Every structure is written in structure tokens, then in C-alpha cells.
């Protein structure tokens, strides 16, 4: 969920092959963007001007993702990317593979 310039929850743990979905419950446009350019983990392909309130974006975690892998992401409007091994600034989150 995206609201009040925060991803909630900030950190999630999922299995490889799972689908992660973000729903914008805010009235402000937001984005979901990989800190390191992970294929498909970028809402811009579906919502080039940002994810509007009430809309959702989904990402299919690669089925071959290795347990312990962490994917970091941020909102391009309200956050900043981390270095690929830590959470970015502002509106940022992570997905850990179980």
C-alpha cells in the first residue's frame, strides 16, 4: 500500500514466484521503482506519470529468485534509491525472498 508518502509495510518477505501488489490509497501520484533496475519492478511502464490514487501496480517476483535476496525500491517523486544493499531515503521499501 502507498499512502502518506510511505510504503506500508516498508519491508515484506515473499516466496519466489509470488506477485507483490502496491495499491495507492493516497490522493497523490506515486511510483514504484527498483533501486538497481530490476526488470519489471517499475510502475512507470504502466503509469508513466505516476500511479494515481485508487490504482494498483503488480510485480511478479522471478521464480528463480534466491532465498535471502533483497530487492530495494523507492518512489521517484518522494524518495531516493539506496545503493542496492540498503534502504533508500524517504519513501522507500524492500522485498526479501523467503
Question: How would you describe this structure to a colleague?
Answer:
The protein has 98 residues and is mainly β. Helices cover 0% and strands 41% of the residues. The protein has no helices and eight strands. It has strands spanning 2-3, 6-7, 11-14, 19-23, 33-34, 56-60, 70-80, 89-97. It has a four-stranded mixed β-sheet, with no helix packed on it. A two-stranded antiparallel ribbon has the order 1-2. Strands 4-6 form a two-stranded antiparallel ribbon. It is globular, with a radius of gyration of 12 Å. The two termini are 20 Å apart. The model has no long low-confidence stretch (mean pLDDT 95).
Taken from the alpha-carbon principal axes, the silhouette is globular
The SSE order reads: EEEEEEEE
Strand tally: 8
Fraction of residues in helix: under 10%
Uncertain regions spanning at least 5 consecutive residues: none
Helix-and-strand structural type:
mainly beta
The percentage of residues in β strands lies in: 35-45%
End-to-end gap:
20 Å
The DSSP helix count reads 0
Radius of gyration: 12 Å
Strand order of the largest sheet: 3-8-7-5
Mean pLDDT level: 95
Q: Largest sheet, described in full? A: 4 strands, mixed
Amino acid at each position: 500500500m502507498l499512502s502518506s508518502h510511505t510504503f506500508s509495510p516498508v519491508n515484506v518477505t515473499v516466496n519466489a514466484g509470488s506477485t507483490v501488489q502496491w495499491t495507492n490509497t493516497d490522493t497523490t501520484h506515486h511510483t514504484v521503482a527498483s533501486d538497481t533496475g530490476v526488470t519489471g519492478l517499475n510502475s512507470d511502464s504502466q503509469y508513466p506519470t505516476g500511479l494515481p490514487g485508487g490504482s494498483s501496480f503488480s510485480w511478479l517476483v522471478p521464480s528463480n529468485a534466491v532465498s535471502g535476496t533483497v530487492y530495494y525500491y523507492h518512489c521517484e517523486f518522494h524518495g531516493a534509491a539506496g545503493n542496492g544493499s540498503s534502504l533508500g531515503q524517504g519513501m522507500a521499501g524492500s522485498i526479501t525472498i523467503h
